[in-house]
Amino acid sequence: MAIILDGKKLSETIKQEIAVEVKKLTDSSLLSPGLAVIIVGNNPASKVYVSSKKKACAATGVFSLEVALDENISQEKLIEEINKLNKDDRINGILLQLPLPKHLDEHAALEAIKPEKDVDGFHPINVGKLYIGLDTFVPCTPKGIMELLKRNNVQIAGKNAVVIGRSNIVGKPIGALLMKENATVTIAHSKTQNLPELVKNADIVVSAIGKPKFVKGDWIKDGAVVVDVGINSVDDPSSPKGYKLVGDVEYEEAEKKASYITPVPGGVGPMTIAMLLSNTLKARMNK
Ligand code: NDP
Question: Which of 118, 120, 203, 228 is catalytic?
Answer without folding.
Answer: 120
